[in-house]
Write a structure and sequence with these properties.
The protein folds into two domains: 242 residues, TIM Barrel (Alpha-Beta Barrel); 77 residues, Orthogonal Bundle (Non-ribosomal Peptide Synthetase Peptidyl Carrier Protein, Chain A), CATH 1.10.1200. 47% of the residues lie in helices and 13% in strands. It is built from 18 helices and nine strands. Helix 9 links the parallel strand 7 and strand 8. The longest helix has 19 residues. It binds flavin mononucleotide (FMN).
Amino acid sequence: MQHTSPSAVPFDLDTALRERALLLAPMEDVSDALFRKLCRDRGADLCVTEFVNVEGLLRGCKGAAHKIDLLPGDQPTAIQIYGADGERLAEAAEVAERSEPAWIDINCGCWVPKIARRGAGAGWLREPDAMVSMAKMVVERVSMPVTVKTRIGWSFDDELPIVELAKRLEGVGVRALTIHCRTANMGHSGKADWSWAKKAKDVVSIPVIVNGDVNGADEAETALRETGCNGVMVGRRAIEHPWVFREIRARIDRGETVAPPTREERFALCREHLAACIEERGEMRAVRAMRRYYPGYLHGLNGAGIMRRTLNATDEAARVFALFDAWQAGDLEAARDAAE
Ligand SMILES: Cc1cc2nc3c(=O)[nH]c(=O)nc-3n(C[C@H](O)[C@H](O)[C@H](O)COP(=O)(O)O)c2cc1C
């Protein structure tokens, strides 16, 4: 799939999602413009912003405005919005549309109690009728494609609504669905059950993207084969291993297994991500924010445990870069000294 700016070839969602699409999941505090670029460079075709609160967006709140501000190279990217009220979601979709995303995605899957209990995110799954009316309202308000990302239902205690919902959402003009194959009650625990994505896919003609526990090429291949879905979306695995996208791409396009990232690639990613993060957030916040990524980025390298502890105790970027240099050169002692 080609990565083009909107000015080059007009974006066509159906084409983009029709066959073996590979998406970076929306993740709060993770899937920002910088992380989207890192993942795109490693094979993610399509990205979705972290969810943006509709009230923040409609109030013109700085944080929300920043999240929907898409730079020219950041395409195709969808803007994801969340809220508990259909009318407000529709208004916010109009605001988001002005940023010219590739499409607009509605979050109907966030399980976090302070969001879902208020009726936003996965809260919509408790009221399928209201969810369908809300989606219809949003679809009718904007001229660009609208998609929904949701879960299979609220809880296994009730009948799971996803199959019926998929049909009804398609009926009101939703152009694609991403199904995180857990219930809201499961949060991130337990295993995603991809069979629900298949059941939903079987009853609709719009593209369906399967999400949840697609952690590598094997899983992506299996998920696509077992569900017949049009694509896969990867979340948490990308945080620790953004190379997952090229690994999946190679497998699902060519049946190949690519070599894992080299030591050099691992250090290069640490440096690139840290440097870009400093530009975005300033030194101290960037150095601290990067700590969540190192366990994955530096996984398996000699001395990783000790170095991680050292990295966690250092707030100065120059020391972190010096540590990487010495460590990459194979001098663990000098690396530790550099950071102290
Ligand atoms: C840190 C974090 C933040 C998330 N934020 C969002 C979000 O903003 N919008 C959304 O639809 N899902 C969000 N999710 C859920 C993911 O998009 C995805 O559905 C979930 O992690 C399951 O996929 P995975 O097994 O590949 O991680 C988030 C998940 C994580 C771990």
